[in-house]
Amino acid sequence: MVVTIDRSYTITPSDSSSTTIIPLSHCDQTKLPNHGSQLSLYTTSNSSSSMENLRASLSKALNLYYPLAGRLRWIHGGRLQLLCNSKGVTLLEATCHDNHTTLDMLLENLDNNVLLEQFLPKVDYSVDRIDDMPLMAAQFTRLPGNGVVLGMIICRAVVDGAALGNFICSWSKLARGEDLDSSLVPFYDRGLLDSLGVSVGPRFEHAEFLTPPLWEEQKEEPQEIELATVVLKLTKGQVEMLKKKAYHDGGKDGFGNGSNSSTLSSSRPYTSFEVISGHLWRCICKVKNEGNWGQKTRVCALVNCRNRFKPNLPQSYFGNATFPTVTPTCCFDDIVHKPLGYAVRNVRKAIERMNDEYVRSAIAYIANQKDMNSLREKLYNLGGGKSRVNPNIYIVSWANFPFYEADFGWGKPVCLVPGSINSDGKAFIMNNGSGDGFIVATCLQQSVVDDLKKLFYEDIEEVYPNSKL
């Protein structure tokens, strides 16, 4: 261990109130009650007074974001409710004693899960009662030299990336001694989101909530797969090359027939998310292929739907408003041998499906479920276990969230990454710290890591081999 915990604090709202109960929305109920993680790396020459400031500003932030100081509780049908009881969040003060583990060293080892997990708070999921588990915890670690790391975990069933971004911006502004503007005051009426699906009923099949394709061939006796994280960096120039390739190699519709679809916005340029996702999907299918060209595969992505409802949800809505969407189920043969535009276009289909009518139907579909545990098991493929390769990709985008605005008095982060990715096929797409490119972090079996690192860039070079990156 290179990191030791010096002190542990329980931070509660400075203006504690009596216990209240907030029902979680139908969208919240689809999320797992475990924690997502995030690491922010900073350069600073003076962190001596940082901990005292973090404690005071976090307590103030929890006055507004008081649900984060509460706890979850199981109720009927595998559902959850949120107890706002001011039990508090955990804040750890830590020190890295290894002189070799500097900020520069961490930036070169962003794919080292064993190392990075030391900068995150630990959660004991073996506790009998979920209402003993904090919804949020943070760890402030001083590095040798001029760096600090702020690691954070937060319960997925309580907030999504947009809500988390607002909270982090609020906490950091208070740490700098600034007042919060009205745009950061959280909107708590989760019943508003639920009401959008009450009157319509489910009108679509909603394949995103059905069991995804499973790995069809198992050559050996099932055994736990060794997983690893791969961190890939893309310049904006490389992403532009992928956009041009996706547009030109298969006609505007990406399927090789040069025709426009009447149901999709094929005239608009592909987004960075669409082309990076399509490219990653293609590369992972290539490295995982074992000659099983008929293997079924799909991409699942999360879409922030605050702006997709008519009228829009408030941007300050505090909770989950990200819904899953899936591409049509394809096979390895099509994804690998058809042009890049085929994969990208299928990603676009999934994203553009998420309009007001479709998402309202999704809410109604969730509301009709008698057993939320069963729905979560299908959504996250929990029945697949760790002994089976996952042919699918689950992609989360952090590119549009204000995480890089989190200046606690040390300046903005130089880098931000997920703290831990431990699910085969899961991937994150993020902006880099300088704003001139992207970071793609994905988890897959250790045996194909080197192949992916090589192929990911070789395929880009093949787009325009004479171009300079």
TrEMBL record:
Alphabetized Pfam families for the sequence: Transferase
Source species, domain of life: Eukaryota
GO molecular function per UniProt: acyltransferase activity, transferring groups other than amino-acyl groups
PANTHER family linked: SPERMIDINE HYDROXYCINNAMOYL TRANSFERASE, TRICHOTHECENE 3-O-ACETYLTRANSFERASE
Stated family: Belongs to the plant acyltransferase family.
Protein name as catalogued: Spermidine hydroxycinnamoyl transferase
Taxonomy of the source species: Eukaryota, Viridiplantae, Streptophyta, Embryophyta, Tracheophyta
